[in-house]
Design goal:
The chain contains 5 helices and 2 strands. The protein is mainly alpha-helical. Strands 1-2 form a two-stranded antiparallel ribbon. Helix 1 packs across helix 2 and helix 3 packs across helix 4.
């Protein structure tokens, strides 16, 4: 389903990279936003990324709140696959903003040290 809005994927990818989000995570997140949700197998096929990189990134993305996962049922014995759905871009932006604020706070400590040494 098309929303009528064209995604400039390159500039979005670059924005993620500028915010110190790995390229793999950024590509997976953009893909999930475009398709709405996918299994790891579908993500691997859709992004052309290495399977091990996708699985590692999905685990990290889940723990950082970039994706939600839903266990799917299957008719086979063994592990049931997950459907990964993207967190809203607003949620991701809020999480990234927290990261940026934490980094600026660390720089503020350096500034306090600098100001004390000036005296």
């Amino acid at each position: 389903m098309s929303s009528g809005i064209k995604l400039d994927e390159r500039s979005i990818l670059q924005a993620f990279i500028d915010l110190k989000v790995s390229e793999v995570i950024a590509k997976i997140y953009i893909y999930l936003v475009k398709v709405g949700g996918a299994t790891s197998k579908q993500i691997i096929e859709g992004t052309k990324l290495y399977p091990s990189a996708v699985r590692k990134a999905l685990s990290q993305m889940y723990h950082e709140g970039f994706v939600k996962r839903i266990k799917l049922s299957n008719d086979r014995v063994g592990r049931k696959p997950f459907l990964f759905k993207p967190a809203s871009p607003k949620e991701v932006m809020d999480r990234l903003m927290i990261r940026v604020k934490e980094r600026f706070q660390k720089l503020q400590y350096l500034n306090q040290y600098f100001e004390k040494r000036k005296d």
